[in-house]
Design goal:
The protein is mainly beta. 9% of the residues lie in helices and 38% in strands. The protein contains 3 helices and 12 strands, in the order βββαβββββββββαα. The strands form 3 sheets. Strands 1-9-6-11-4 form a 5-stranded antiparallel sheet, with no helix packed on it. Strand 2 (14-18) and strand 3 (21-25) form a beta hairpin.
Amino acid sequence: MSTNIEDLILVEPFTVYDERGFMKKTFEKNIFLENGINFLPIEEMETTSKMGVLRGLHFQNKHSQAKLIRCAKGKILDVAVDLRIGSSTFGQHFSVILSSENKRMLYIPRDFAHGCLTLEDDTTFYYLCDNKYLPEHDSGILWNDKDLAIDWGLMDMNEIILSKKDKKLQTFQEYKTLQGIF
């Protein structure tokens, strides 16, 4: 399912239910290719967090990663920001609830920043990546950057939990200046 940002795709995976539960196919290369997603993952990350954990907005400034995000337990607000220089949607974001209940996945192409907010305790989500995580190229933009104006829907949250690293990320304006965009 397409989004308001080119190449950013909300995926409704093939799911079969019966009296035992359900079976979900989260990735098949040919089906993805048929739907315009040229994605070959090489690593998978698993994250479990309590409610109120906000991660991001992360990206690699070299060796960018495309990601396929899915939530296996609980619920997250997932956000992708277009950082593709020259894109008609540069600096725009898309957000969606991913949960164990709705089984949706979000395909995020390379050159996007990614962040998420955990909306339930003990939430587990996965992301398949098409490039290796390289900590020396890890970067990010502040989650509450005023220019990006992302609505994280925080009215129900008593406390946001951020890593020390995420508290010190650059602003979107600082990112643009480093990229030579004024």
